[in-house]
Design the sequence.
């Protein structure tokens, strides 16, 4: 064998000790050993807007899992943000954008191609053979309408035709760039009555659906469409071919019995949450869940769901005491659980407060048995707090303690003293 030896295409299985044996040809030999470590390679994913009108914003999206991110692209572009935005797009910005993800030791690359197209009507229209579905012969003004997407307070706009067809990708992020709503160029959005929407609004839902056998992970979102930004009444909408939704979650905060995390929509009393279709062709990422749908109604709710509780495991009679607590006061949450499965059940029940697991208890129940399970938490922050346990939901409020103002007491005592003094003087005058 040669003195130096290279082993290409290293895998994790190749890690370990390697021994070199040296022989001088006269039966005299020596050996030395070295330890080789093979590190797992990070996986880079690059996505974002692929079609954008001149003057629009290019939004690049890098997958998680790295310690550092470096984007490079046309027109001298570079960025160390995980998901950078490039405003005021020009044709010179068209081309391939490369993301290099590094975990401190190893790196990986991924690419996304972006087309900056000329649009009529001050930025609507055109695109040619870029796959957007918009004709390059679009007349001026065809893409003069603007769709506004309000994603949890962050506004994103995209140009569209008078028929509600997007002339460019619409990728709307929330302020931290964790959750997103996306519709590609060529997608048609029409409200009921063939009205073109001016506004799509994504908000955190103000109420929760009835209790079920699944746990929501994080907040529940509501999506509404409005033909006019000045109209307070939302309309049902059809989206063709579909829109995409991406929500993030913390894997460390999932219940221990989680089988998978899915994106769901619309709570049906007899069916529970309905699962959204998967986003085919995308790379699965830990901490993110994706789904697609071609419509939503004013009351559609989107939620990330965790694994089901065991069949026949019923929870009821959620009680929270006190419902109004002071800072650092203990709050007791109790729930009655019953086993109707026909067999014994061992189940880890978790208490969540504001979406965070605060306590876990192992519940062991024979068939037909019931048990009251108690949790205790300390109220550490002011305001309303959401409680979730075994599919049941409730809330308690933490209020500030009443503080006695020293100046107020002094003032009251002074008034009382004046009244007493006045009464004494009056009695003396009567006696005289």
Sequence:
């Amino acid at each position: 064998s040669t003195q130096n030896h290279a082993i290409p295409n290293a895998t994790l299985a190749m890690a370990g000790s390697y021994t070199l044996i040296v022989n001088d040809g006269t039966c005299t030999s020596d050996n030395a050993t070295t330890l080789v470590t093979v590190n797992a390679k990070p996986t880079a994913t690059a996505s974002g807007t692929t079609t954008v009108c001149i003057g629009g914003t290019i939004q690049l999206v890098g997958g998680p899992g790295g310690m550092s991110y470096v984007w490079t692209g046309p027109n001298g572009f570079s960025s160390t943000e995980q998901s950078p935005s490039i405003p005021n797009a020009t044709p010179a910005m068209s081309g391939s954008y490369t993301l290099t993800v590094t975990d401190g030791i190893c790196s990986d690359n991924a690419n996304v191609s972006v087309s900056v197209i000329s649009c009529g009507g001050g930025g609507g229209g055109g695109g040619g053979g870029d796959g957007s579905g918009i004709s390059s012969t679009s007349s001026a003004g065809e893409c003069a309408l603007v769709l506004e997407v309000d994603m949890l307070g962050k506004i994103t706009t995209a140009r569209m035709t008078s028929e509600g067809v997007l002339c460019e990708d619409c990728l709307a992020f929330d302020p931290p760039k964790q959750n997103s709503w996306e519709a590609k160029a060529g997608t048609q959005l029409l409200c009921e009555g063939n009205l073109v929407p001016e506004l799509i609004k994504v908000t955190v839902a103000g109420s929760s659906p009835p209790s079920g056998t699944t746990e929501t992970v994080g907040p529940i979102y509501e999506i509404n469409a409005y033909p006019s930004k000045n109209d307070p009444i939302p309309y049902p909408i059809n989206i063709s071919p579909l829109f995409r939704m991406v929500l993030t979650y913390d894997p460390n905060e999932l219940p221990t019995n989680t089988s998978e995390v899915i994106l769901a929509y619309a709570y049906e009393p007899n069916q529970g949450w309905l699962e959204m279709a998967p986003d085919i062709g995308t790379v699965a990422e830990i901490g993110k869940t994706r789904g697609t749908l071609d419509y939503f109604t004013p009351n559609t709710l989107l939620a990330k769901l965790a694994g089901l509780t065991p069949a026949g495991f019923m929870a009821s009679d959620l009680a929270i005491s006190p419902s109004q607590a002071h800072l650092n006061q203990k709050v007791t949450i109790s729930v009655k659980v019953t086993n109707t499965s026909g067999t014994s059940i061992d189940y880890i029940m978790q208490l969540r407060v504001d979406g965070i697991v605060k306590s876990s208890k192992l519940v062991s129940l024979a068939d037909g048995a019931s048990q009251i399970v108690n949790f205790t938490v300390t109220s550490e922050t002011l305001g309303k707090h959401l409680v979730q346990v075994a599919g049941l939901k409730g809330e308690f409020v933490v209020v500030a303690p009443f503080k006695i103002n020293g100046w107020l007491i002094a003032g009251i005592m002074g008034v009382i003293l004046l009244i007493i003094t006045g009464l004494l003087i009056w009695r003396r005058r009567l006696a005289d």
The two ends are 130 Å apart (CA to CA). Residues 406-431 form the longest helix (26 residues).
